[in-house]
Amino acid sequence: MEFELTDEQRMIVETVGKFVRTELDPHADEVEKLDDVPPELARSIREKAIAAGLYAANMPEDIGGGGLDAVGITLVERELGKTGFALQMLVARPSNILQACEGEQRDRYLLPTVRGERHDCLAMTEPGAGSDVRSMRTRAVRESGSDGSDTYVLNGTKHFISHADMADFALVFAATGTEETARGTKNLITAFLVDLDTPGVEVRRGSQCVSHRGYHQCELIFTDVRLPAGQRLGEEGRGFALMGEWLGASRLQVAATSIGRARRVLDLTLDWAAEREQFAQPIGRFQGVSFPLADMATELEAAELLTLRAAWKQDQGTMTDRDAAMAKLYASEALGRITDQALQTFGGMGLMAELPIERYWRDARVERIWDGTSEIQRHIISRSLLRPLGA
Ligand SMILES: Cc1cc2nc3c(=O)[nH]c(=O)nc-3n(C[C@H](O)[C@H](O)[C@H](O)COP(=O)(O)OP(=O)(O)OC[C@H]3O[C@@H](n4cnc5c(N)ncnc54)[C@H](O)[C@@H]3O)c2cc1C
């Protein structure tokens, strides 16, 4: 067992950490106030990330990505997690699922996305289909023309689609049929690459979210959108399996950003507990303040070990859905507890916009919801424990 980072991993942490401090953090207040990242700023951050070799670090080297393994990308995400999502997402990663692109799709979608010329978003969730994503109503009906054309006609609505307002195309999941399963009739899902300027596609800004100002959710409305069969990603009816192949990576991303953010919050809280005086001594001398600090540090270490272990297992090809679910569940819930306790330690100042604590507290809340709620992670973990026992 080896817990030390290699020299290369240490260099990754230093490089990304410096990028966060010098290129992202200075803009955090402005993004928060505007609830937006001005396009010029977004462009400049992306350019700097590309120049620093940080862009698309999750993608294989032979297609122009950073070629980092799962432990490497987890360390990158951990450092990026120290700032808000609106800024960190400008540096980070295109959807891994794009690696399923074949033939012409690689030139139109995968490669320009890795180069930072095009931007993707992922559209799965619908107003009526969240955790139960297979119950989606968005449908793609295949039509074969007498001229030999092979087209899908897409209709439906997606919501909560992150950064669709900054994207050029979406990975859209739609029902293309049904199958009988032990739990009744279920949709067969297929993935499509949909350019957002295709006739019949409308992108609307969604409600304002309490977490991660400047990182917007959108509605995507599809009305008789005609997609040549070449826009299908992977095989028909295999979209759900395709999603499943990459879901572990996105859950590790949530876990990694959660531990990065928790680390920063803990550091700020330690400084405050050491400096803020009441009753003529630093508040950190009161056990009521210091014991929660011990709990915060312990939970953070545990979350980090669980997350890095899952990433290490991914590199060995042995990571299970349970490993990723445990990391996501524990790290996101630990972040929630740590930010809440941090705010308590700051007292009234913790609630004031003048300090970043209330922001971290608000931002932490979404981590327990997106990429599968805590309940869904518990469901995955408990099923993996009970299924072998026949329960
Ligand atoms: C800010 C934000 C950004 C997002 N970005 C994207 C995106 O880019 N693309 C995308 O496709 N989606 C995105 N999502 C959607 C996100 O993945 C869903 O919100 C999430 O999966 C939960 O679905 P839901 O909100 O419909 O909640 P619901 O599924 O309605 O759940 C409501 C409650 O019921 C519980 N519940 C549901 N089923 C069960 C069960 N079987 N057992 C126990 N409890 C259960 C849930 O845990 C939750 O507490 C985003 C969401 C948010 C908030």
What does this molecule look like?
With 391 residues, the protein is α+β, with helices and mostly antiparallel strands. The chain has 3 domains: 7-102, Butyryl-Coa Dehydrogenase, subunit A, domain 1; 120-233, Butyryl-CoA Dehydrogenase, subunit A, domain 2 (Beta Barrel); 242-389, Butyryl-CoA Dehydrogenase, subunit A, domain 3, CATH 1.20.140.10. It is 46% helix and 18% strand. The protein contains 11 helices and 10 strands. The strands form 3 sheets. It has a 4-stranded mixed β-sheet. Helix 1 packs parallel to helix 4 (70-80), helix 7 (239-275) runs parallel beside helix 9 and helix 8 runs antiparallel to helix 9 (321-346). The longest helix has 37 residues, at 239-275. It is globular, with a radius of gyration of 22 Å. The mean pLDDT is 96. The structure holds flavin-adenine dinucleotide (FAD). The site of flavin-adenine dinucleotide has 21 residues, from strand 1, strand 3 and helix 11. Flavin-adenine dinucleotide binds at residues 121-125, 130-131, 160-162, 209, 217, 366, 369-373, 375-376, 379. Belongs to the acyl-CoA dehydrogenase family. Residues 6-117 form the Acyl-CoA dehydrogenase/oxidase N-terminal domain. It comes from Streptomyces qinglanensis. GO terms for molecular function: acyl-CoA dehydrogenase activity; flavin adenine dinucleotide binding. Its cofactor is FAD.
